[in-house]
Each structure stands twice: as structure tokens, then as C-alpha cells.
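Annex B. Sample input.
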Amino acid sequence: MSLSKKLAAEFIGTFWLVLGGCGSAVLSAAYPGLGIGFAGVSLAFGLTVMTMAFAIGHISGCHLNPAVSLGLWAGGRFKGKELLPYIASQVAGAVFAAFILYLIASGKEDYAGGLASNGYGEHSPGGYPYLSGLMIEVVLTFMFLIIILGSTDERAPKGFAPVAIGLGLTLIHLISIPVTNTSVNPARSTGPALFEGGIALQQLWFFWVMPVIGALLAGFAYKWLWNNKK
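Annex B, continued. Sample output.
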């Protein structure tokens, strides 16, 4: 598959992830009497990844996340020369999705300006401090990459990886929405932060650094844990 087609797939897939996941949080989570709440938002993020894994996994691998691309590279499953183009396409897809979501959400008269950005401290949904955010983003990104690397291994049961990955991301959101609004994905954090500005943009560095640390640790751990060579 040509690189241009892979990048187009990553753009579309990341667009869907942010539009579906953040869109559910902004438009549906607190809808009076019928809101989907944390559980619904968690499922929405999981469904976006699962549906795209089936739709574009055979084209680009369906990373949709700079941390995933870096973790796969660390695990020996992705070419280093494609890292920067993949990350650029993922960020572009996330920013475009945030723009579309902003156009939709801002059409409501009482729109308060939120786009489900990530944060810690005063910007954490539950008021969790920096250290709590650090731990949850590093640990959960680590576990997300372990799920991805393990379920897509050639020795794993065939055809179930999208389900495992989608359910894994759902579980991650169920755990961590109150802490950081769940990033584990620098691109997902970048799109909303650019349109929200303020503290969301000030804290954006955190949601690049911590997921990347977790992903790299998982990639290196995977190479050791699943290596069956004596």
C-alpha cells in the first residue's frame, strides 16, 4: 500500500475517533434526561477505534494515535521512516474533527466553549492533581499498547484484534475520564485544545509527553515479553 493511501486512512480514522469520541462527550453526555454519561462516552471512543480497525486496519494499520505509532516502532512493528508522516496525518485528522465539532456545538445558544479537552489539576473533571494524571496517562497508555501489540501478534487468534482494542479503549475511558478526561492519545488531545485555548492549550504538552512515555515503555517491554527466542 502506498504511503499516501496510508496517510489518508490515518487522517480519516483519527477524524472519526475525535468526532465520535469527543462529539459524544460534547453533544450527548449530559443531554437532559437522556444523556449517555461516562459509560456512553467510553463506549463511543471504543466503537470509533473498533469500526476503523475493521475499515482501515488493512490499509494503514489503524494507529489513529501518535503514541500508538511510537509504541509500535519501539516494539519493532513499525518503520521509523513513516513515523513523522503518520503523526502529522493523525494530528491533522484530529484538528479537522475538532473544527467540525466546534462548528456544530457552537451553533447552540448556550454553548460554553468546551470540546472535551484533557487536563489535570483545576482542569481535571474530578479535580485530580498532576501526579494522578501522570500515573494514569502513563499506565493506561502502556496497557493500551500491550493490548494492541498482543492482539495483533501473528500468534494471537485471528480476526479479533479490533474487538480487543476497541473494548480495551472503552475500559481505559471508564477508568480515567474523571481523572484527565482520558487522553492516551496526543492527537486526540491536540484537536480540542487548539480550539479551546487557555488552560487546555497550556497543559497540552503533558498529553504528548505522558502517553508517549507509556507507549515507548510498552513497546520495549513487548519486545522482551513476547520474544520466544532463547
